[in-house]
Design brief:
six-stranded mixed beta sheet; alpha+beta; Rossmann fold
Length: 418
């Protein structure tokens, strides 16, 4: 039964000390997803630090600096399973200087859990992380209003935060926002319903995560298959003439017999077969990794894209992207970088910074053109050869790019095609 479970990826975000790591620890602890040796190690560390009970945050804060300072620095990935669904959690840091890590952790998420301290309400980091979640087109946002035990489980405090958040989020494009009052430390409304908040009629957090409808989040219309490599096995006589194009389906559905076009060459053919390790399959869809064979031999290599002939992406050398700058060093004016888009990599130049976003007000600043770490801005990029792109709001895979510094090989920015 578990093999057929749907996988839900979700990220946690919020300001420092809002209780993100404690919430993840509570989810793992109460859902019985902790191994005995992990539990024993955390119990010993908790005693050594003088805590009365188990410090739940230690289940996710794995770095020594994190444990010493009591903060999250890197993105911590955790995995757990319930009878209804499999989960991958990205516990992201709350400090402003680690906003880039939050972008990394949230880039593949189906849902975002935004934690808000019931005492402080919506603050700058809440807005920053919510805006990034909106920018990354995360379909579902769950606002967990934490530390309700410190405001005497007050319904008024809960409603006050909802009012603040809705006023801010009305400027963003988020389809599904839900609010849950919780206490991660005490376990109220995390895995089990709280007896302290009878006025809350909704489901606890885990039940909400188990029942989120995510099947429609995938783009099943635009068939895109970026080619990663060409398979030419030579070991068996029957495979002597096999030529398969291997990669991961980015979006859409492919079936044998479909008429396809190879971009950017424009050559057309039909799909002969679709193979996985176990053998042939009748269809392939995201995010399956497959090998596609065609009726005709065509010169296809890494970086090319197989698409349906009646539904092609727009090849373009001039693209506009919303760029999150991730590097300590600022962007070089008209600097050249390597751009990576699906399996395609080539040289690109930042032609122009159109505007920067003020995270607090969401206003556009067209005067400041310098890109520094954690800045979010709209830029124009010119590439040496056309990229087969889709708008990010329609296709998160073919609408995303990263920029790499040639000299250091560091990823300096992540971008979403406008």
């Amino acid at each position: 039964m578990l093999d057929n479970n749907q996988l839900l990826r979700f990220t946690t975000a919020g300001s420092v000390d809002d209780g993100k790591s404690t919430l993840i620890g509570r989810l793992l602890y109460d859902s019985k997803s902790i191994f005995e040796d992990q539990l024993e190690a955390v119990e010993n560390t908790s005693k050594r630090k003088g805590h009365e009970g188990v410090d739940l945050a230690l289940f996710t804060d794995g770095l020594r600096d994190e444990r010493e300072q009591g903060i999250t620095i890197d993105v911590a990935y955790r995995y757990f399973t319930t009878p209804k669904r499999k989960f991958i959690i990205a516990d992201t840091p709350g400090h402003i200087q680690y906003t880039r890590n939050m972008v990394t952790g949230a880039s593949t998420a189906n849902a975002a859990i935004i934690l808000v301290d019931a005492r402080h309400g919506v603050i700058e980091q809440t807005k920053r992380h919510s805006f990034i979640a909106s920018l990354l087109q995360i379909p579902h946002v769950i606002v967990c209003i934490n530390k309700m035990d410190l405001v005497d489980y007050s319904e008024d405090a809960f409603n006050r935060v909802i009012e603040q958040y809705e006023e801010f989020s009305s400027k963003m494009l988020v389809r599904d926002i839900r609010f849950i009052p919780i206490s991660a430390l005490k376990g109220d409304n995390v895995v089990n319903r709280s007896g302290n908040m009878d006025w809350y009629q909704g489901a606890p957090l885990l039940h909400t995560l188990e029942t989120l409808h995510i099947s429609s989040d995938l783009n099943k219309v635009d068939a895109r298959f970026p080619v990663q490599t060409v398979l030419r096995p030579q070991s068996h006589d029957e495979n002597r003439d096999y030529r398969g194009y291997a990669g991961r389906v980015a979006s859409g559905i492919f079936r044998p017999g479909d008429e396809i076009t190879v971009m950017p060459s424009g050559f057309t053919s039909r799909i002969k077969s679709i193979d996985i390790f176990e053998g042939e399959v009748e269809e392939a869809f995201a995010p399956m990794s497959v090998s596609i064979t065609l009726e005709e031999d065509i010169d296809i290599g890494r970086g090319d894209m197989i698409v349906r002939s009646n539904n092609k992406p727009e090849p373009s050398q001039d693209i506009e992207v919303m760029l999150c700058w991730l590097n300590n060093s600022p962007a070089k004016p008209r600097g050249k970088y390597r751009i990576r888009h699906t399996s395609n990599e080539q040289t690109a130049m930042i032609k122009e910074v159109v505007y920067k976003i003020d995270i607090n007000t969401l206003e556009r600043n067209s005067e400041d053109k310098e890109l520094k770490m954690n800045d979010i801005s709209k830029v124009k990029i010119r590439t040496t050869k056309p990229l087969m792109i889709d708008p990010y709001r329609e296709n998160r895979t073919t609408g995303s790019i990263i920029l790499i510094d040639d000299a250091t090989n560091e990823t300096v920015a992540a971008g979403m095609v406008v």
